From TrEMBL:
One GO BP annotation of this record: regulated exocytosis
Gene Ontology cellular-component terms listed: lysosomal membrane; trans-Golgi network membrane
Protein name (Swiss-Prot/TrEMBL): TMM79 protein
TM region positions: 29-53, 74-97, 103-124, 131-154
Organism of provenance: Pitta sordida
UniProt KW keywords: Membrane, Transmembrane, Transmembrane helix
Lineage, highest ranks first: Eukaryota, Metazoa, Chordata, Craniata, Vertebrata
Amino acid sequence: LCPCLIYGAYVFLPFDAPLLPTVSARLVYTLRCAAFATFPIVLGMIISGISRLCSSALEPFGELQREVEIHRTYVSQSVNLFILYFFNLAVLATYLPQELLKLIPLLTGLFAISRLIFWLSYAIGRSFRAFGFSLTFLPLLAMLLWNLYGMFILEPENILS
């Protein structure tokens, strides 16, 4: 489903990436796009704080209720995945040709939407969370493989430069 979503968005959404001739311009573009991917994480922190305040627990450091634990786990996992996603997205931006830089905001949007889907499905039941997690993890895995291919096969002489 991930390749179909990305391809459909790439073909049918009417925008193009700006002209980014240098690596530093591409990294700044990626950084700006990645700022939008923090929206679900910040929203999760807000909801986690509200659920903790509204929790009926008398012991603040005691056992967490299920509602509080869901949001806390979601935020923790999302932060970890965002770090991996962002670093792979930044490396990917350095290897992509100009005409494919439209993938950077599309992958960022997919990350944000998939984390929200994961959160919703995790709240419904733990057995349903695999779909949202795979929408996050499989593009991350594809980016990692492409980055390794780019570093070791396409440009092995520039691996550290």
